[in-house]
Fold each of these.
Amino acid sequence: MALDIEKVKEAMYKLVKDSAGMKKWKATDLHKACEELFGDEYDKRGIGKDAIKELVEEGKLVYTYFGGSYLEIPHKEGAAND
Amino acid sequence: MPVEKKYETPLLDQLETGEWPSFVKEIKAAAENNAMANDLLGLLEQSYREKIGHWKHGGIVGVMGYGGGVIGRYTDLPDKYPAISHFHTMRVNQPAGWFYTSEALRTLCDIWDAHGSGLTNMHGSTGDIIFLGTRTEELENVFSKLTAAGFDLGGSGSDVRTPSCCCGKARCEWACYDTMGLTYYITNRYQDELHRPAFPYKMKFKMSGCPNDCVASVARADISIIGTWRDEIQVNQEEVRNYAKSGLDITKEIAMLCPGKCIEWDGNEIQIDNSNCRHCMHCINLMPKALAPGKDRGAAILVGSKAPIVEGALLSSVLVPFIKLEEPYDDLEIWEVIENMWDIWCEEGKNRERIGEFIQRVGLGNFLDAIGLEPQPEMVAFPRDNPYVFYEEYFEEEEDQ
Ligand code: HEM
Ligand code: HEM
Ligand code: SF4
Ligand code: SF4
């Protein structure tokens, strides 16, 4: 059976949420982790890319920039002024 | 709405006194009607006085769904300069070759007057239209007005940056391929990579129509696509003689400066040994009426240049010495090579490692091997100087013996 995109999204979201504040995830890190979780069924150019896109469009994750680009849980950052 | 002047700016005023255009004059003009531009004058004057910058980087602002195009900034003196408490930059994808109607320019300025500081940078070194300074809650408003007018945000962060090109065939007879057409194609082909950062670091494409390289792609693009030709320089001897008659010293100014040492001038005709030509454009630039690039035109594709940021500067190295760049662009083989390059860079590249640095670290020979390209003589920058290519068949032969 083909891999369910909701499962991939759930896994990615959990990876980011569980390590929030400790580790910053780049898209490539999420792909590597999902390749380990789901094995050959996981295709980073297909389902992997779509899962990130949907998570961001649903507002569950946001892109951030600190030297490089990361995916994080939306939050108010330290530098932000009111 | 007129803004009451609040700041004395003796230091900034000095920057208006020279004979050059002054950004201070422009900010002051904007400040008459824009509170953000006005507070910017105050803050800048204070920074000049104290010799301290008063900006903080913001890493999280953007528009919904995109990971690039907005660069977050806040001042660390929000109480003193409330209008620029937020001062985010937006990058707007410029049209290929930077051609606009005056109506398009008015549309852009009207959007920015209504939702930002009114200050723009046309254009940034990235090539984008730069909108300087707005608040977080205005980002979506600007974005929706831009898209309604047919514009989109450009790249920032670890994504494909907004591709840019020289004006190419639109204005320049030396263009060896349609830079604007290819740039438009690449922008569309890599929309996902442009808006959703997925690389170890930034990835820039720059397209120049000939080796004059007016967008300096050899020095600052991870992928430089530079027009060239593989037949003979076109020569009009009559026009060569006219240059000589009008006082050009062809031996001294052209033949002796030719890096290929392949030009001879006997006072009547010029001879070019095209097999030794380096395609540097020098002779063509000096005698544009007499000489022109050949007729069999295409481009060289180079990889790996960058300005010094995390590590030192690099120039691009040749990846594909010559390729015909003609429509349909979908059928070109280079996309597969480029996407293979991205795969291995994503797999093995370190965080904030540009692809040129990555290639230096693993070695060009290993890199070519991994993306499935054969080494070619054009890839060697200096003969006997960078022996990164090992021909395995030699070793095998020796082992057999
Ligand atoms: C005396 C004041 C300043 C000087 C001399 C200065 C100089 C420069 C220069 C030389 C560049 C590169 C431009 C290019 O090659 O296109 C640049 C880029 C930039 N500057 Fe300034 N700058 C000044 C003030 C500011 C301020 C006050 C801001 C914002 C608050 C700002 C935001 C930017 C941004 C966002 C870019 C990048 C544009 C791009 O993407 O190419 N600058 N600046
Ligand atoms: C000590 C002060 C600063 C240092 C050392 C610094 C350094 C840098 C470096 C190394 C980059 C990367 C250049 C690149 O990606 O090509 C950069 C990018 C940038 N900087 Fe700064 N910067 C400083 C202050 C500022 C300030 C005060 C502003 C704005 C008010 C600013 C705005 C920007 C922008 C808009 C970019 C482009 C980000 C991007 O390419 O995505 N910087 N800066
Ligand atoms: S790079 Fe060459 S083709 Fe492009 S504008 Fe400059 S001279 Fe013309
Ligand atoms: S293009 Fe450069 S190398 Fe070639 S003939 Fe002219 S000057 Fe010499």
Note: The pocket of iron/sulfur cluster (ligand 4) is lined by residues B 258-260, 262-263, 272, 277-283 (CB under 6 Å).
Amino acid sequence: MNDTSNENILEVDKVVMAFGGLMALFKPDFSVQRGIIKAIIGPNGAGKTTLFNVITGFFSPTEGTVRFKGQPISSLKTHEIADRGISRTFQTIELFGNMSVLENVMLGCHTRVRASFMAAGFCLPGARRKEKEIQERAMKILRFIGLADKCNDPADSLPLGEQKILEIGRALASEPELVCLDEPAAGLNETETHVASSLIKAINAKGVTVLLVEHDMKVVMNVSDEIVVLNYGQKIAEGPPKEIRNNPKVIEAYLGGDT
Amino acid sequence: MLRIGKLPISTFAFLIIIFPWVAHQIPGIEHYTDVMVFAGIYSLITIGLSLLMGYAGQISVGHAAFYGIGAYVSGILTARYGLNPWICMLAGISVAGAVALIVGAPCLKLKGHYLAMATLAFGIIIFIVFNEEAEWTGGPDGMSGIPGLSIFGFDFDSVEKYFYLVWGFVFAAFVFSVNIIQSGAGRALRAIHSSETAANAMGVNVSGYKVLVFVYSAVLASLAGSLYAHYLNFINPATFDLFFSIKLLIMIALGGMHNLWGAVIGAGIITFLNYEWLHYFEEFEVIVYGAILLVVVIFFPDGLAGIPDMLKKRLGKH
Ligand SMILES: Nc1ncnc2c1ncn2[C@@H]1O[C@H](COP(=O)(O)OP(=O)(O)OP(=O)(O)O)[C@@H](O)[C@H]1O
Ligand SMILES: [Mg+2]
């Protein structure tokens, strides 16, 4: 797009997310530059998934705002945020299990090519054409993620690794400007992890900004341009991978304290 | 499973067209055309329910209410106010659609058992209204004097004519619904069924679609109610009770709710059981319905329309 590369595509501004007395997020502050891969790391329960849920509108924050391309989005509904150009995957796989691999990706196109109930019902010529267009677009994505030969299999028949990859494919189908990946490498073996890493880089190379939550440090250090570290809902560090690796606070959060 | 081709639809249309003639040739089943009028009326409702339940995964145990709304709006406006039946039919559709919108928006936020309870309560309330608002509805005794249908001087005054009218509507609703299922909208409905979380994240307006398909199913039920009222020229509340809502569920469970053919097959079979084949059982009829539901749910979870797929899978394994 024609924006300058220095633009912040996403700004997380002092977001508080409280569940009863529990502060799952407590005023983390950071922004994401357009075009980069930014990782969010932190110990279990640090609030990473909660942050994704706030960004994508599943939770509305108790305090603070999230801005996407300069516009506050915290009051929007999840599907409206998806419309604006943020897509995501889930930590625990949320594929449409009873639908085929192809249909999963086709559904991802929902925000871009929309058929109305009426137009579909009366089978207006436009509706047919759109459906074809969606199918071609979805096949292109399946070739990109390497699942084209399984396009007619039910999604839940795929092995875990491919399900994770398929979720990424589905997220890409909406042509997002920002994609949030929640632990894409969790549960993958070494080869699959490698595939996932390359895929993340390939997505980014296409100009999509990536927000990545991941526990596998090899992946994080390998792909990300910047890292934010959360602990107990607070940001404790932010910077390029090299700095984060040697940051004593981060080492302390991971190794130490109360466990 | 999802593709419904042109050939089966044409075959189906052809069978329907020759049905009255065939029934007329075989002694003892001449009156089957009359039974088929009811099968068509019920099919209209089950087609909508199939989209709502089988595709979008939202249960309704109160659709007799929308059926009744169509019948009573048509009945009251024609018999009491002498309005044109077709306009009354449209009025019924509008009322049912509006009620579905108002009831559906809060109810469809509920899931599973809670949604079932809410729609059940809605059905019961409407049933009570039909009984109690006697000035309008005639109360438990019902109301008569509802005129038949005619268009441009052509009267639908015989069973055969009405048969073609009703099945014309069924055919239109069927094709319209098939088109929806095979489009992005249908995919969105199935996605909602599978994971609301993911559907939302992919930009599907989940609550919007749920209400939309609920309204659609209510409109079809209302249309069926109007056709019923103008066919029998008489209606009473008992037709629209809770048991009818449950019978509708038995129809789509028996036929198979993940397949639009199932809606028509289930409606057809239950109608014939109801009007023809279950007389011997008299008041034990309910037990037969219960048994059917039990057998289907346990042995054919995808209903009769799902049997070909089931066999294919079985044979494929060996
Ligand atoms: N819907 C919810 N209701 C109540 N508490 C919640 C909810 N979602 C998350 N939490 C709590 O918020 C905290 C942060 O959880 P979150 O899932 O964001 O952690 P995470 O960083 O993603 O951890 P992990 O690495 O294990 O995925 C946890 O204490 C969790 O129990
Ligand atoms: Mg998490």
Note: The longest helix of chain A spans residues 125-145.
Amino acid sequence: MLEVKGLKLRLNGKPVINGLNLEVKKGRIHGLLGVNGTGKTTLANLLMGIGYPDEGSIIFEGRDITKCTISERARMGITLAWQEPARFEGLSIKEYLKLSRNLDSNESESYLWMVGLSPAEYLNRAVDVSLSGGERKRVELASVLAMKPKLAILDEPDSGIDVISLPHIMNGIVEMSKQGSAVLLITHSETGIEIANRVSVMCAGKIINTGAPEEMCQWFKDNCRTCDHIGEPAHEGA
Amino acid sequence: MIVVNEYEALLEAYGKAGGSLDALRSKEVGNLVIHKNRVLSANEVKGIKVETEETETGVNIYFLVEEGAKIKYPVHLCFGVLPKEGLQEITLKVEAQADSEVTVIAHCIFPNAINVIHKMDADIKIGNNAKFCYQETHYHGESGGVKVIPKAKIRVGKKGIWQSTFTLIEGCVGMLDYDFEIFGEEKSINELLVKVFGKKEDDIKIVEKIHLDGREARGLAKSRLVLNDNAKAVVMGETYGNAPFARGHVDCIEIVNGEGVIARAIPVVYVSDKQAKVTHEAAIGSIDKKQMQTLMARGLNEEEAVDVIVKGILR
Ligand SMILES: Nc1ncnc2c1ncn2[C@@H]1O[C@H](COP(=O)(O)OP(=O)(O)O)[C@@H](O)[C@H]1O
Ligand SMILES: [Mg+2]
């Protein structure tokens, strides 16, 4: 459903996305594993329409969306959960969940339960600085669930998360997949990626290997943990 | 007859502006309705005494909350000028005696103003352990022909609580010169909040001054402004920590959402006791990009996203 071909982007003269190819299949959880600074967030942004690539194309359900705006992509069923989600003063969680479509209160409550937040306690709270980092990320996931997207791009949903929030986050992602959403699960660590159906390893702005989760985790440990290719051409011949 | 017509007309505007008509009609709810310099209706409830005196240009009001009285329903005030032109000067003397509790909701309505001046001079005394919540909401027309000049001096006694909200987000502001100054004694809570949506050629000046004069007094001077078109605003949030363990905070957000906007914030934090602490934060700038992108990633267009953010900030 998503096909990325030859994507390139330079920032401040430096190649950050460097000829990236990627395919995500319908209804699947696709893991994207890469060390910090390898360009994962930049890729997530390009897929959502936050910034445009210098070269290459992004095809979604057979349609070239490389030049589409954020709102246009969202209406096609693509959404993004940020690594550090924004805070909104005066906007309740209840309202936040309803941004993409109208939900009845049962539905709103069920999405909060999926990420382990009690509706009675949270629905009327604001999506502002009063939420902890973990709570905010769980709310973000609930709002992605509420949108029922065709493709959810999740940028490090597990980073900066407390041990209590983590299993709820993982549960939310599994629920997303059960709902029929494809998920691009971006992470810098192998923990938690076992819920993926397939995993791609990213290094220096490129996908350098794709395969089954266990195999890719091992490969990542053996090759990328010690690699210092950041900002340079990726592993040759991989 | 004229009075009745005037009253009905004002009530209609009041209802349209979101005021509670039931509250004005109920015998159990305290209210006071003033059009220009005429008192059109006044209803006292147990525990509250209201005296009024019509002057040439306005009304002098003496408002008393008796000692220990806990007023069940909010008291509703309505100040209006319906014609295009007019001057309304309100002098307000408030005394909330010890241990009393009341919420006052004021609606100020100038729907047709081309050249209307509304002045309020308030002298307010909150007794020991008394609690006074004051919410003033303005409804202006679209012409911007209103000058609003509310000034208040508020003295809050020991363990007293003052919480006020001034809201001007419907219609054009015109000119606003808001100046509230509050003096808090020991363990008092002193909170001033202003929410303004400036548009077109609006000219806005806001002064929130809090003196924390008693031990453990608390203060919050908060302001939220959204400025479109050519609106100009200056916010002066000042807090003076003058006693041990006094804690104050100045918190100002101004969103610049127009090409001709000029926004300024001048916070003053002053401490004259080494055990007092006053903090401030001020953020002036355009709407946060990441907030916009987040809402757009849920399918909102740019305009809808701005709307959600602005409404949230002014809520
Ligand atoms: N706006 C920018 N301007 C210049 N360099 C940037 C910008 N954004 C990211 N980078 C650089 O691009 C690289 C990849 O960043 P990022 O996509 O955030 O990586 P990751 O998410 O994998 O940690 C980093 O070296 C970062 O410093
Ligand atoms: Mg990142």
Note: The longest strand of chain A covers residues 14-24.
